[in-house]
Amino acid sequence: PRAEEMLMLAHSRLNSASHTLFTEEGIWKESAPGYINYILRLMKDAQRLNRYSSRFNPELFLNRMSTCADFLLKCLTPDLRIPWVGSSGMKYLSPSIEKMIVKMNGSSIEEQLVELSNSIQSFPSYGQVIVRGSHPYGMYMNFTACQNLPAGKRHADALSFILYNWGRNWITEGGHQSYEHNKMRAYLESPFAHNSYVFGDTYVAPRKEPHLKTKIGDVIAGQTTFTISGYSERYMGNASVTRIIDIEKDYQSLVITDQICSQDENNKWYGFLHFPPDLKVERKKQVILVKDTEREQLMKIVFEGEQEMNFNIFSGQSEPVIRGWGMH
After folding, report:
1. How many whole angstroms from its chain centre is CA 206?
2. Cα–Cα distance list, 243 to 58, 218, 223, 314 (Å)
3. DSSP H/E element including 221
């Protein structure tokens, strides 16, 4: 007997959510792209309810469908996966969502990604920038600098990134395993499992200290170079990092410049890079060689800095702490 009343309550709450739970770009405020797939499925369910009751029409909420679908398409990796950023185990588009995006734009997902080749897509309010070379074998980078959002699926991943080239993943991150409260989940949510920094022996948890800022800075499409910048002060001890990434438009090289600032001379900075487990990693002084021996391909990383740097390689360590466990 209260069905109509509950339907109108859902109508009101969904329209209210359109003002509070979406970014300025119109993207659902879960800092995990897999949840954009989920909210699109919810929107499709809401559309079906509208067919049964003309009074139920959360138009403001449903108007966000196109902007959510646009972001989800543009962030897809070259192998058509949803980036494993944040606490979401969704790896691929749901069949209904893929069908919807194809219908909205009149071409296949592959064809749409080809059209996005050689572009940079910036979503500063959501906190991601995507650079894409030629699809599917060119460079792809997903860069994250996300401020605390109302929802709680974010990781401590400020200034982290994922990198593809030559049709495969070269720099990865821990991703998501489960929602169980265990050591692995704590590790995967921490900056230790991302391509970012820790200052000192501990870190700011993802949903703590919301006044400590993270943001996308300048995003510039130059004549020969794409430039991305991000800033984060989500570190212990009044510290901050500014990361600037310059990507040459031949998509064969990039330069990452990190400006790290702190007033505490007693603590050290720790930086991390994560590689898929099928790659071979070697260090020669301040040069890291990452090899795909099966394809005979090589990524060379050269480190330069004003301070002395020490290097360690971890692979599948579980004691005394979990290190080097990439889920993807």
Report:
1. 14
2. 40, 11, 21, 24
3. strand 214-221
